[in-house]
Amino acid sequence: MHVTPEACEILSELLARRTDTDRCLRLSTVQGNYRFVLDEPIEQDVSFSYQGRVVLVASETVSRDLWGITVDCTEADGKRKLIFRKAKPHEPFDIVKDEPDPVPPGWKAQEHERLLAEIAEIGKQIASLRGGSKNMLRDQLHTLEAAKQEKWDAIRALWAGDGGWHKRQAALAAEAD
After folding, report:
1. What is the edge-to-edge ordering of all strands in the sheet holding 2-3?
2. Which site among 44, 47, 132, 138 is 20 to 30 Å from 65 CA-CA?
């Protein structure tokens, strides 16, 4: 998730109407829809500031769900409004973190390749499904499409988060003992 300076300015203007200066807007999900609510930041939040004031926070989970999305603004009928759009070339796909990534890039690349190979295999299975009853075919396709989506989600988590790096390292350490 990336937030443009223009979007931060709009958020700041929205907050200027409030008297409570330690509050900010929180990007959260309600039944799968994203919305802004007035809240206070907590330490684990990803935060965005404008002119020294925190104007927007999101949990890391929400931030990861919006990987590759930019919060921006547009002008319509003489009014500026916030929008969510796909990141443009040369825009960051995610916030820049101050701490270095503990996950080796080589491991991420290997996992990415492995997941892409699994997605390709699922694609071949889907293409090869012929014959059988329509209900059985529909159930098999649904199962394969769900498995394929899980792999794409894993790739997104791999690059937006740690891709389960710590869990795998703990499992490897337990196996070594």
Report:
1. 2-3, 69-76, 79-86
2. 138
